[in-house]
């Protein structure tokens, strides 16, 4: 997510340049240092730092992505009395995502980007119904995430910069008549303080607060963007993502690396509420019956990616790799103990995705002084 926000900086610079070339001359391809917007003050003439480096891919204004995995095994182990273990195969696991980023404010010393997104994940299992609480309740059901976020990039001077992002989303299997913010709302944030050492090297340290590792947590984050020569570079937001970049030419870029993705859904139990039991099989009256579960999904993807310019404003992204599932667990979100109810494991599997994204047209960038 942060990578998309960082790259939107190009879009803000390009739009500003198209409004008035005299008010925006940009020196780099992506996230260039802000150029003078007037000659009225020393601040207007100052060059400001930013997180990007030469050679990074084009900024993304609108993104449509579809991802699919083939058949793979699934197994679950009950963590409470009254449930059984179960295993089956998933015949489908697919994700559709649509994201858009809008430059709301673009000045040399401050850039504000607003993002909107919709994501949907679906599962199908063989031998339906499975007669298992978790699988039957996510079978062919849209696990959705609808989100809005705002990112602020604050260059301080020629070397130092800040980046902050806050995001609110609704995540789960909600429908329009079931939706309540208290049930499905989620919040995440991040803040980075960085240094721009040269046009080819920018790095920063900070924290991320969110669901990247399945449950809500705070963890350190390191941004490391570096271009070594005209072909090779690295882009990282560690520990969540590290990517090696190869620029074949200005219209074709290859990537290799890994990414950690976390998803957190509220799943409504359509059948009778789930009641935990004592060792003797009697209902555990000390715990409220569960009508919903919190599904925490964490996966590591080892990926190869290719981005190719189709038109001056339209790019294709093709990606393939291997998905290792770290967790696919259901938790009690009704009782105070937040106990794990079901521990599941999705077998590793290959995956592939296709993506189309819109970028500022080449002529618009050239008019603004941006080198592609």
From TrEMBL:
Signal peptide as annotated in the record: 1-21
InterPro entries: DUF6268 (IPR046235)
Protein name, per record: DUF6268 domain-containing protein
Keyword Signal attributed: yes
Residue stretches making up the DUF6268 domain: 187-270
Keywords of this entry: Signal
């Amino acid at each position: 997510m942060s990578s998309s926000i960082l790259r939107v900086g190009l879009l803000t610079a390009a739009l500003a340049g198209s409004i008035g070339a005299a008010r925006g001359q940009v020196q780099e391809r992506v996230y260039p240092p802000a150029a003078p917007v007037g000659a009225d003050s020393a601040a207007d003439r100052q060059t400001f730092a930013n997180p990007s480096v030469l050679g990074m891919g084009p900024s993304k204004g609108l993104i449509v992505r579809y991802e699919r995995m083939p058949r793979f095994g699934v197994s679950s182990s009950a963590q409470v009395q009254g449930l059984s273990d179960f295993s089956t195969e998933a015949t489908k696991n697919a994700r559709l995502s649509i994201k858009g980023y809008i430059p709301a404010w673009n000045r040399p010393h401050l850039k504000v980007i607003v993002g909107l997104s919709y994501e949907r994940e679906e599962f199908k299992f063989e031998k339906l119904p499975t007669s298992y609480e978790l699988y039957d309740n996510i079978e062919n059901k849209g696990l959705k995430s609808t989100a809005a976020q705002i990112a602020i990039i604050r260059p301080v001077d020629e070397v130092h910069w800040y980046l902050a992002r806050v995001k609110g989303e609704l995540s789960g299997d909600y429908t329009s008549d079931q939706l309540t913010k208290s049930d499905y709302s989620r919040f995440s944030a991040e803040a980075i303080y960085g240094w721009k050492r040269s046009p080819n090297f920018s790095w920063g340290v900070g924290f991320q607060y969110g669901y990247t590792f399945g449950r809500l947590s705070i963890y350190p984050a390191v941004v490391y963007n570096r271009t070594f020569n005209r072909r090779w570079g690295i882009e990282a937001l560690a520990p969540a993502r590290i990517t090696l970049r190869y620029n074949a030419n200005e219209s074709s870029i290859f990537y290799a690396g890994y990414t950690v993705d976390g998803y957190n859904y509220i799943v409504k139990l359509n059948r009778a509420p789930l009641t935990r039991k004592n060792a003797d099989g009697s209902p555990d009256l000390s715990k409220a019956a569960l009508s919903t579960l919190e599904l925490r999904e964490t996966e590591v993807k080892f990926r190869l990616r290719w981005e190719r310019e189709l038109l001056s404003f339209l790019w294709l992204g093709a990606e393939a790799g291997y998905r290792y599932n770290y967790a696919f667990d259901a938790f009690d979100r009704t009782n105070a103990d937040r106990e794990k109810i079901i521990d599941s494991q999705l077998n590793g599997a290959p995956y592939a995705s296709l993506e189309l994204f819109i970028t500022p047209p080449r002529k618009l960038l050239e008019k603004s002084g941006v080198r592609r």
